[in-house]
Design goal:
By secondary structure, the chain is of the alpha/beta class. The protein has eleven helices and eleven strands. Helix 3 runs parallel beside helix 6 (150-163) and helix 8 packs across helix 11.
């Protein structure tokens, strides 16, 4: 993305934001509350339209594409606040993720033709044998989502995103509200999605220990602007990042804060 500007009334949520995500990488976007992280995600996925700037994906300008067309090209996302259909089963929620790739038309669906049955059976087989097994949720696949714990709902949301056959997976605070065990499981799944599925990951997350351990590249936002980018260890030492988080230029203080996150994870 390059030169993205997004405003709500007279307030600029994003101001000339530019960064790239290397194929096959895990890139994290961090920053204080209100820095513009979710606005970046909503702009990339097409829910917000920038006033200026552009977004390129696989060499193509997708800035004006509608969200369903972006999904069909290989963009998938999870949400900061879980966005599942609570009355549907786990399996049905996951199957909805493949909607953008289905070839079934309205007439075929109405009469449930043999072609429609074959496509649905193939989809169900793939989801059950690959995605559900991978995320270790076979025991809840027939359960209504509303009856599940928060951590399992987050896992189902990841499963639905994977059903979209993503090339770029946008994870909006994937471990927010999780306990230590759930966080460790989600971190493992993210690493395996990148390694075994070949999916590029762009992640917004407040858990600094996880960000520093998983990320290949970190982008830091503050007041809608990019104030730093680079390797995790470089970002930790950046005085502008320290100032954004702590209001001072005390690098040692921020480093100690990161270490406290890590100690909590291993305690």
């Amino acid at each position: 993305m390059h030169g993205l500007t997004l405003a709500f009334g007279g307030v600029k949520a994003l101001n000339d934001v530019a960064f790239s995500v290397a194929p096959g990488s895990i890139t994290s976007v961090i920053g204080p509350n209100g820095a513009g992280k979710t606005s970046v995600f909503n702009t990339i996925s097409g829910f917000y339209k920038p006033a200026t700037g552009y977004i390129r994906f696989e060499g193509q300008d997708i800035t004006r594409l509608a969200p369903p067309r972006r999904a069909a090209r290989g963009l998938a996302r999870t949400f900061q606040n879980i966005a599942l259909f609570r009355g549907l089963t786990v399996l049905d929620n996951i199957k909805l993720g493949r909607h953008c790739h289905l070839k079934t038309g309205p007439l075929g669906a109405l009469f449930y033709s043999p072609a429609v049955r074959r496509e649905e059976e193939a989809l169900r087989t793939e989801i059950e044998e690959r995605i559900i097994d991978f995320l270790e949720i076979d025991h809840i696949r027939k359960a209504p989502v509303g009856a599940l714990s928060y951590g399992l709902q987050k896992r189902v949301e990841l499963a639905r995103a994977l059903a979209m056959k993503p090339k770029l997976l946008l994870l909006d605070e994937p471990v927010a509200g999780m306990n230590r065990e759930e966080t460790e499981d989600m971190a493992r799944f993210i690493l395996e999605v990148r390694r075994d599925w070949g999916v590029t990951v762009l992640m917004v997350e407040h858990d600094m220990g996880m960000v520093m351990d998983l990320s290949d590249h970190v982008v830091v936002l503050n007041f809608g602007q990019v104030i730093a980018r680079g390797l995790p260890q470089e970002v930790q030492r950046n005085p502008e990042v320290v100032k954004a988080y702590l209001g001072s230029g005390n690098v040692a203080q921020l480093r100690e804060r990161f270490q406290r996150y890590r100690r909590k994870e291993v305690a």
